[in-house]
Specification:
- The structure is a homotetramer.
- Chain A is of the alpha/beta class.
- Chain A has 2 domains: 5-164, NAD(P)-binding Rossmann-like Domain (Rossmann fold, 3-Layer(aba) Sandwich), CATH 3.40.50; 170-292, Orthogonal Bundle (N-(1-d-carboxylethyl)-l-norvaline Dehydrogenase, domain 2).
- In chain A, 52% of the residues lie in helices and 12% in strands.
- The first copy, chain A, has 14 helices and 8 strands.
- In chain A, the strands form 2 sheets. A 5-stranded parallel β-sheet of chain A has the order 2-1-3-4-5, with helices on both faces.
- The longest helix of chain A has 29 residues, at 167-195.
- The radius of gyration of chain A is 21 Å and the shape is elongated.
- At the A-B interface, β8, α9, α10, α11 and α12 of A face β8, α9, α10, α11 and α12 of B.
């Protein structure tokens, strides 16, 4: 049994992504440490496989969607890793969010073996993964980006080629560090206005037309009641979790250490989310820092 | 000699604002500690006055554009202040950027005397003042806002009624604190990307379509070369000076102390601009913090 | 009825201080908004008074121990204030913790009226006030400091003359800002060590003999169990409350704004204690930030 | 040719340390990438060696003093590393300052090979290394600590056993993070006092007897003129360099990321020193942050 695409990591992101590849007409063989996740993909039309090594040897494309750098290194490297079994020319797409350094290193090792690897982290979360509307930020060669497009288009709607190996991860780290900073800054501004008697809706409307305007304020306002559909108006359920933001800010600070960058606000933002998570809010939407600034 | 409008404070903001009132067909009598500034307004068609007290007694509208809270208190309060001489019903428009507390107090004192006062700080800078395209953020009664509109429209193009007395100042303080935070955050993100080999134009383009998108990134990008017309591409000349941002962040932190708000990022941002100013960069555009993060 | 000393403000600091003056053989007439507090002083041998104005007119020394700047201004200034009634030559001792600017201004106004005023804030807390072991940090003239010594010695054991009017407050603000920073820093260092498996007692012992040594680590270690007598080992009860530290850090940041100082760590420390207080810990000892860094 | 002690890394710390072992009566064979450094040790009585592998095979003790984690890993691991050649029972002393994680890992690998390794980073700098007055913070078994004492005592005067493998590094990281925080806090407090007219010597004296007292204030005061022998009074020459402090704070933040600790002040301190270094002050004593807060 073989398949055009092998998809490794069928969690709450990987499963809907792989499912969209199946719906796009491709044969997809899925692998996951949890057997039940594989069964779910088979129920959607995926192919059941026995040996990952065999599957990789016969695949045209290998996709991975894993929790962190060490898992990605574990799957690609080593005697039984993807690199050891993939035929030259195989396209490797890693959509995990990992350290840019690791993505760079893997991309180079792949190239040395004649494999075409891209780092292609996403934004859009489980909702975007299901809807097939993810944004992909891609690092790798122009050829790798071109080869990947037909596959990525079945899972997302916006594809950006950021630069060489690791560049997709770098863009994601930079964007999310800025996002994490802006969320706290927006929460501070709204709290300060309210403490002076302003209506947060009026304040939001005026800032949205002024120099403080930003995506967070306009799309996932952290003040309950300002936007009925935002996580803030639904008990900070759904959305982008504090612990996920914390992971991304950790990657940013780690990268800043190795590249000798100054990130005073980024580093403080990480610590603010960390304190918020330690107080028991790790699973809430990251906009819940608004509550941290106002408790009692 | 009398005039419909008395305008106090003819600096690099007040003079072009008063001039636009003149061009709008109004008689405007100007006052300033620097006689030359008054002459400039007269040269534009303004009316020369002798006594401020007399002028205020006969005016329909008094506008002020002064450096800081203490100057505004000095002009309005005391035996020889505007409050002492203005006839009931006079409209008072203060466009200075001052502490919300002070604006609130002045507005209440004015109301007790039968005067209609609004706080109406602006954004847009000297360029917007000359072009008559300022944004006004207004605090005061609905009646005060309505009465002021014909005058404000001759000086600006966007008018927002934020709420009661002091609300205009509060909106400005909130917006500019957020702006100051976002500028540093954006500079950090761009530096981090470049340290990883990314092209800042590509990074800017991708983030501008992602969740980190914000007005600073899209309109006055702090990385030299990304936007040819931005201060960053012109040696950080023009634009919004570090020392002006520092003043506004000082108002924000001061207000946070009196309202017991937490503003961890706002407070850190103030200190970052303060260190940058102490290193001799107070007159440069605030986007020059980008250079602070990359020197050597 | 008259008394050598008039003592205004008989709270949990003022009452034991006034009591120690009584025990030192002085006649002390006390005033407080809470009648019960006055009765407590009378029970200790204090003199009951009727009119504050009369009392001040007949006193040799007036002491004040009040919550904040506005209360001190209220008691000394105005038509019915201490300045209006005190005879030339009266010694005025304000032991409240207030803004250096306000202390400076009051000291100058007193001098203009021929009164000898000192600002003499204390450290040592209610325990030191009862034991008569307070530390006094004094601002004012050398003559004022000399005149005050016999009185201060009955309430404390260490007296420092810091400089001109306001200098006592400045020293207290500087010391407590540094204290607030060091407490958080010490908590961070202990947590980091423990997360790496170190015994906090061993870590404390080694750092106490190294360059990180400081008063907090050696005298009120924030890690429960390291020092049996410290608040940390008693549920963070007693000690120096988070909200009091927050007040002092507020004075520091306010002063930094008016003197254009950079206090990046001081400003962040204020926000950390503010977040900790907002989470419901305002009454605990300030060492409880240790728990904030480790919750869950 | 053989020697009891092999010493690898003869820089401005390693050379005087190895020299003190020679003076203590031991035969010491030195190795360094710079041949001249080896010659210097030979001139002091050290033994010239040819093969590092041979030397290690015959040694009783191997000491290393290297710049960073990767150098230490390079020397101990790999086919030609110390672990590959040392006889069972050899004592390995690494005095480099490296990541606790790496020290832990090396200690465990050594134990698996029957080698007795300790991590023994030092404080005291080149001055202490020459004088033989270094402080050693040791991680490893009690047996390892005992075996090492006779050697460490020839190079230092204070020896602390902090705990298991890696604990010496952890103590150093914790102490130096706290030190870095306290230096900035002390500089902020002194600047704030001076901006209010206080004499920094008087302020130092009072705080040194109060709750803000700490080693930095009392031993290497950052305000020029307060202590004639301190680096601050000598153009911030000598002392502990900004870039070395930056390296240690980098290790602290990196460790905080991997152990999920919150270090808001430690992370901000790192960024403050980083900005200071980027402005061209990396080689000055770390107390020069005092100047950063006061420039102009």
């Amino acid at each position: 049994m073989s398949a055009e695409v092998v998809f490794i990591g069928l969690g709450n992101m990987g499963l809907p992504m792989a499912t969209n590849l199946v719906r796009g007409g491709l044969t997809v063989m899925g692998f996951d440490l949890v057997a039940e996740n594989v069964s779910k993909l088979v129920a959607e039309g995926g192919v059941q496989g026995a040996s990952l090594a065999d599957a990789v040897r016969q695949a045209k494309v290998v996709c991975t969607m894993l929790p962190a750098s060490q898992h990605v290194q574990g799957v690609y490297l080593g005697e039984d890793g993807v690199f050891a079994h993939a035929r030259p020319g195989t396209l490797l797409i890693d959509s995990s969010t990992i350290a840019p350094d690791v993505a760079r290193q893997l991309g180079q090792l792949a190239a040395e073996r004649g494999l075409e690897m891209i780092d292609a982290p996403v934004s859009g979360g489980p909702v975007g993964a299901k809807a097939g509307t993810l944004t992909f930020m891609v690092g790798g060669t122009a050829k790798g980006f071109d080869l990947a497009q037909p596959y990525l288009q079945k899972m997302g709607k916006a594809l950006y080629h950021a630069g060489e190996h690791g560049s997709g991860q770098t863009v994601k780290v930079c964007n999310n560090m800025l996002l994490g900073i802006i969320m706290i800054g927006t929460a501070e501004a709204l709290q300060l206005g309210m403490a002076n008697g302003l209506d947060p809706k009026v304040l939001t409307e005026i800032i949205s037309k002024s120099s403080g305007s930003n995506w967070v304020l306009n799309n996932c306002n952290p003040c309950p009641g300002v936007m009925p559909a935002a996580p803030a108006s639904n008990g900070y359920a759904g959305g982008f979790g504090v612990d996920l933001m914390l992971k991304d800010l950790g990657l940013a600070v780690e990268n800043a250490l190795s590249t000798r960058c100054s990130v005073p606000l980024g580093a403080l933002a990480r610590n603010v989310y960390d304190l918020h998570s330690k107080a028991g809010n790790g699973k809430l939407d990251y906009g819940s820092v608004f509550e941290m600034l106002s408790k009692q």
